[in-house]
Amino acid sequence: MSGGPGAPARGRRGRWVLVLLLLSGLVALTALPVWITATGANALGDAVAVAVRGTTAAPGLVAAALVLLAAAGALGLVGRAGRWVVVVVVAAAGALVAASALGARSGATATAERAAADATGVSNLTGAVQVAAWPGVAVALGVVVVVAAAGLARSSAGWVAPTDRHERAGAEAAGAAPSPAGGTAAGSAAGGSAAAGPAAGDAEPDERSTWDALSRGDDPT
């Protein structure tokens, strides 16, 4: 049964965890394709194709994806104060995605020259540098992440940490339970009166015990 007052907040928290996981996956996938292509030449003059993936052109995307993954995990545990840390971290990850993509686009030629040098030993390019649409996609995705951080800040205003919720529930259960001292005292009183009952009954002499005492020569009175 999940109809308690905390159920809607838990549902929103779970949805935001999924949102951050989705954004982390999208950022990582955006970095996988080839972003920059060019043509270089080796020492013998042979043409060599140069291809640079987003993971190399914009390594900040990989870092941002990992940050978003960690933020999704932390979001399931933090309380009202910790959520602000998660919001700031998510916004910073979005800014990092956009900045890395813009830097990769503006520095495409230098990146291609480094890739050509790694592949051929010669950094000179023999053809034009081509930049795919992925840097623009990454910039847009970074903006989406920043907007998601703002939505998270607004949606998580009434969240409570799961640990605080469990501690409160335990405290309420402990308050509703009977006091051990009270229960022991009541049990002792009940046991004492029960024990006193038979003792008082035994103290009253019956007719048979009176005749036994008389036969022994004792005075039962």
In short:
The protein has 9 helices and 3 strands; from the N terminus they run H-E-E-H-H-H-H-E-H-H-H-H. By secondary structure, the chain is mainly alpha-helical.
What labels would you give this structure?
disordered N terminus, 8% strand, mainly alpha
Helix count from the secondary structure assignment:
9
Task: Give start-end ranges of low-pLDDT stretches.
Answer: 1-5, 165-171, 179-201
Q: Strand portion, in percent? A: 5-15%
C-alpha-based Rg, rounded = 39 Å
Gross morphology: rod-shaped
Physical arrangement of strands within the biggest beta sheet: 2-1-3
Order of helices and strands: HEEHHHHEHHHH
Q: How would you sum up the major sheet?
A: 3 strands, antiparallel
Helix content: over 70%
State the distance separating the first and last CA atoms: 71 Å
Number of strands: 3
Could you explain the architecture of this structure?
This protein has 221 residues and is mainly α. 70% of the residues lie in helices and 8% in strands. The chain is built from nine helices and three strands, in the order H-E-E-H-H-H-H-E-H-H-H-H. Strands 2-1-3 form a three-stranded antiparallel beta sheet. Strand 1 and strand 2 form a beta hairpin. The longest helix has 27 residues, at 80-106. The protein is rod-shaped. It starts with 6 loop residues before the first helix and ends in a 6-residue tail after the last helix.
